[in-house]
């Protein structure tokens, strides 16, 4: 299996300045390569490919030895591949008939990662293994940077990335051949219904709380954003205010990740088979504002619901659950979410009127009464087990 490990970096002031310069030079390379492609096509209708731009790197580095020439050649190739990937995604969306967004130039706040594609080529993880208490990563042009390694790295380190989040720096290791850690079988299966009142409701009737981290920090975020709006653009005070807003959002993100990890771990420990809805969260949280010609309805209510869904972090939770289930040897089954909340788990009657309220389900045919989310989770479990049986029989 491939897994990622993320650790906080502890750079010195000089190393932090070098990391900032490295990030800025890679951003400049990305933007220059994008301009090269745009100009070549606009002037002479020629499409520039990654191979041509990679070949030009040798001359770029020779002409700018004190700038671009300081950094790893492989990391610069990775930046050019990142641009190439953006163009391929653009053309794929175009062919699929969707509305594509053309690759954009990256501002300082929109380019925060540099990747080294191979451990040992311009970078080295655990570069001082003889050190008794600390771990270091060596980066070309930066030096040996101390790492706050809070857990063991398993598998073989393949790629190393450095990411800036606010004022902090992180190293992200992508590792292959990470061994699985199967858990003892329990013989139990469950369906789970994701919600806003409770993050997860199981078919056994258990509710896992939704902590609503964004809502809890809403007052502090609003105050910080108001303070940011009052500051003059380009000023030092505005940069400090922006850093405060970013720090608050970063804390909410970390809290959400921590909660998702704990909830997912609890489920994979208790159940061998877990069925969940195959949700299209991007579609569910799309704006209802509409257009000037055809304005949407209940826009404020839909906006609040979208905010609550995104605060719950369903997508993050399902991603983490998938990774933990794979590592633990558990089976995850995604089912079609259509009518799971309107179908009676006792008699199978489907009707909109069955869902009396957010929490109450009352079947109009057989008078079955249950918690609405538990009823939906039971339907999800049955659909998941049916799909599993079909897949095993095939």
Automatic annotation (TrEMBL):
InterPro entries: Cas12f1-like_TNB, RNA-guided_DNA_endo/Transpos, Transposase, Transposase_put_HTH. Residues 181-287 form the Probable transposase IS891/IS1136/IS1341 domain. The keyword Kinase does not apply. Residues 314-380 form the Cas12f1-like TNB domain. The keyword Translocase does not apply. In the N-terminal section; belongs to the transposase 2 family. This is Transposase.
């Amino acid at each position: 299996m491939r897994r990622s490990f993320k650790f906080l970096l502890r750079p010195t002031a000089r190393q932090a300045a070098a990391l900032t310069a490295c990030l800025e030079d890679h951003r400049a390379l990305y933007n220059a390569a994008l301009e090269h492609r745009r100009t070549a096509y606009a002037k002479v209708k020629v499409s520039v490919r990654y191979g041509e731009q990679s070949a030009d790197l040798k001359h770029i580095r020779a002409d700018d030895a004190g700038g671009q020439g300081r950094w790893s050649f492989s990391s610069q190739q990775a930046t050019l591949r990142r641009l190439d990937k953006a163009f391929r995604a653009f053309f794929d969306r175009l062919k699929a008939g969707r509305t594509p967004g053309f690759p954009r130039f990256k501002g300082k706040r929109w380019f925060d990662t540099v990747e080294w594609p191979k451990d040992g080529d311009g970078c080295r993880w655990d570069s001082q293994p003889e050190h008794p208490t600390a771990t270091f990563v060596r980066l070309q042009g930066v030096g040996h940077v101390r790492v706050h390694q809070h857990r063991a790295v398993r598998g073989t380190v393949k790629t190393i990335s450095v990411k800036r989040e606010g004022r902090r720096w992180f190293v992200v290791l992508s590792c292959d051949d990470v061994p699985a850690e199967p858990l003892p079988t329990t013989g139990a299966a469950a369906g789970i219904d994701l919600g806003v009142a409770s993050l997860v409701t199981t078919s056994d009737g258990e509710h896992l709380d939704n902590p609503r981290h964004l809502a809890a920090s809403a007052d502090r975020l609003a105050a910080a954003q108001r303070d940011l709006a009052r500051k003059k653009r380009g000023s030092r005070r505005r940069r400090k205010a922006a850093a405060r807003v970013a720090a608050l959002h970063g804390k909410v993100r970390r809290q959400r990740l921590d909660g998702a990890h704990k909830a997912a771990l609890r489920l994979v420990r208790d159940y061998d088979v877990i069925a969940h809805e195959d949700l299209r969260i991007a579609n569910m949280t799309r704006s209802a504002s509409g257009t000037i010609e055809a304005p949407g309805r209940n826009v404020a209510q839909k906006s609040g619901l979208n905010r609550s869904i995104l605060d719950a972090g369903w997508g993050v939770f399902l991603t983490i659950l998938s990774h933990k289930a794979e590592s633990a040897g558990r089976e995850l089954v995604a089912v079609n979410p259509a009518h799971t909340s309107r179908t009676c788990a006792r008699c199978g009657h489907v009707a909109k009127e069955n869902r009396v309220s957010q929490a109450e389900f009352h079947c109009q045919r057989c008078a079955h009464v249950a918690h609405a989310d538990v009823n939906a989770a039971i339907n999800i479990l049955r659909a998941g087990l049916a799909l599993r049986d079909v897949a095993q029989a095939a």
